[in-house]
Design goal:
heterodimer, A: mainly alpha, 10 helices, 0% strand, B: alpha/beta, Rossmann fold, six-stranded mixed beta sheet
Chain lengths: 255, 226
Amino acid sequence: MDFIERTKRFFGLSFSLANAGFKLRNEGSYLGILWYLLNPVLMFLLLFLIFRDRLGNEIPYYALYLLLGIIMFNFFQDVTLESTKCVREYSGIIKSIRFPGESIVGSVVLKRAFAHIFEVILFTLVLFFIKGSIYGILFYPLIFILFCFFTFGVSLILSSFVVFFVDLDNIWAFFVRLLWLATPIFYSIGGQVRLYVFNLFNPMHYFINLSREIIIYNHLPELWILVGAMFYAILAFFIGIYAFNKLKNKFAEMI
Amino acid sequence: MERIIATKISKKFKIGFKKHQSFLARLISLFSGKEPQKEIWALKDVSFSINNGEIVGIVGPNGSGKSTLLRIISGIYKPEKGEVRTNGKIISLINLDVGLQSRLTMKDNIFLCCSLFDLGREDIKDRLESIAQFAELENFIDTKIYQFSNGMLQRLAFSIAIHCNPEILILDEVFEVGDESFRKKSAKKIKELVKKGASVLLVTHNPYFVRKYCKRVIKLESGKIQ
């Protein structure tokens, strides 16, 4: 099977699994979308009310800055956390049928990307009310594709390692919480050197920063931010593919 | 044409160790030393070949390696030694599991399972009615399958499998549940597929089925062909 056929099959199967997963989670009702929206909206309101006076004056368009950070981080958090569970969830199929297992992780990304569309619509509405101009959002799909490559790669690594380390889901949940605090989502780095150095190694910082610069501030991002985002996306994607392919033959025996 | 060529395949499993080790336990075991592992050879030097148009039965007591052999042929397990070469689209129905999800409707399950067997959406739409008809479940297309009996699930799983263009059909204890009339209907369908050139590998504990339909029988005991 050539590359195009394999890619076609990967997307077709990912779509079917995502569709089934969405129906399973929401019992066939699209009202389930509300649950995806409720989390970022409540978190946004809470953080906005707490930090608006303290940080809102230092950061231009603080509401947009905060909301964009929240929805992007939530996407990464939800996909990666679910990827630590998805292989075990589909253990029956993995033990019975040979199929491209990457599609399970692909379906997790697709399913969450569908819900992300509604978050982006919400963000676009807020952007319109606050700034009046929304043309920056037109570039978001390009950034999001890059972000999906990164998230997919990390998820592939997690989903293959969790077969061998059963408590990886707990460790990852803890790590993601730390990453949430370490990433400038509701604050800015300002002059904090240590935080700045740490975030050079934090891929989330690059993706969120890139989006904020283009969508909220309508600036061309600095080259190192763009290169950093591309570097982490490609690196995570290829390591993910390599790790998953190396370990997937053991899945059926281990789960 | 040979559909399956298995050459000296052996498969071992490690047992008697905590396979679901946590990260912390693995870290500690680096210092404390690993606990002794016991190995069990589920298959040892198994060789055979199956031509197109053949129905081959695999029989043997529980734990003799039948399901392991089917999983290796299906490409789900990798053998430690030896190799399996296959020629044709494999559809495996092992432990009646084709990925049916109990909280989905029958229609959604058909779409999901056929996708797993590499069928496109348009192809699935075309076959939806035929799958439901063969399974005799036309009136339950929008019913969630947790309400189905074991027999209904078996009929649905089998119907999906035979509608996905199998060239090598692998069936593991599929006919142990279900009624006689459906068994006969399934056997007829299997014969039709075989006539068109497919090969069928069938694990069953039903000696009548083996005698009546299988051209050859592979008898496994303790992982070896007897």
